[in-house]
Amino acid sequence: MNIHEYQAKQLLARHGVAVPLEIPARSIPEARSAADQIMGSGASRVVVKSQIHAGGRGKGSFKNGFQGGVKVASSAAEATDLAQAMLGNVLVTKQTGPEGRTVQTLLIAEGAKIKREFYLAVLLDRASSRPVIMASTEGGMDIEEVAATHPHLIFREQVDPALGIMPYQARKIASALQLKGELFNAAVKLICGVYQTWWESDASMVELNPLAVVGRPDGSEALLALDAKISLDDNALFRHKDILEMRDLNEEAPLEIEASKYSLNYIKLDGSIACLVNGAGLAMATMDIIQHFGGSPANFLDVGGGASQEQVSAAFKIILSDPNVKGILVNIFGGIMDCNVIASGIVAAVLETGLKLPLVVRLEGNNVTQGRNTLAQSGVSIITAGSMADAAQKVVQAVKR
Ligand code: GDP
Ligand code: MN
Q: What are the catalytic residues?
């Protein structure tokens, strides 16, 4: 699950990471009062930031022609105009795809005078199976671009997950960022806080880009997280009720939301053969074998080891709502799963949706005889298959016709 910038900064602030004074707003009056409040606290500028689950907002453009999803204003009135141009409009960035995302929330933040921009992230290094902290003096721009053009400017520090981050490691990173004096101390505290946020919230990634040295009106300097992105491990969300409340369904694909309501693991692909399988490994193998016989899978769908009739029926409707689907392959190996539950779910869904597409079913395992009887007696038109290879060939043939 991903969360918005303003929510990511709330989590970071709980772990002592310094963030600007900022207020989320969901309407024009809210944006105006947030800007008033921030200007009233002594700020000379405010930044109006579109909140969508995609990066590249600064360089993005709105479908109404307005340029930039992150803009600086020097008065509350100007900030209100910017809010007017952004709220409710579709922002297209490098990461949204051409369809873009509708901006439903803004973040109104104290406008900082940026002196230096850094990149700082914590993520899981799959090669070493350990958390790794990545930092760079080249913040503000695409880190992929820095990695491609100046790889030597990306500093990496691995953390032992049993020990957590050691203060010397935070100091190494602060030195790599060429920070001195008070800013060095602030960086050590901030880096530890960013790591703690990653660890405590079971995040897969925490990224600050930019982390910035900013000039304060009194001439002093401070280190602030100006942009933040957090991705969370879905498998750990059950123990973070507060984070789960940050979920924004407006930002998720409708079919995937529907699937998650039924605890189904669904990922849409661009082929024409829908598959309904129990178990992730079998689902992968099913996609491979479809491909092997010259077809292309329309989705990955794992209904899990102990699916109910209701889940099977929901799964069917989800795969059918993809207009590219020309045929369906159900591949079930009943270990824990009762084949008759699957069979009943299939029949119910076929009758309910009035399915006309070819449907190939391969059932094997627990209570398979009764499952096959249920299918045979249902009067529903089904192509049965004796093996996985047989099933894949039959569905590929059926789709070609
Ligand atoms: P992104 O484009 O989606 O990564 O959004 P960011 O939050 O990183 O904002 C884009 C750019 O706007 C940043 O790289 C900064 O250069 C600039 N920016 C963000 N916050 C401030 C701020 O408080 N003051 C100023 N002057 N610029 C800012
Ligand atoms: Mn950014």
A: 119, 207
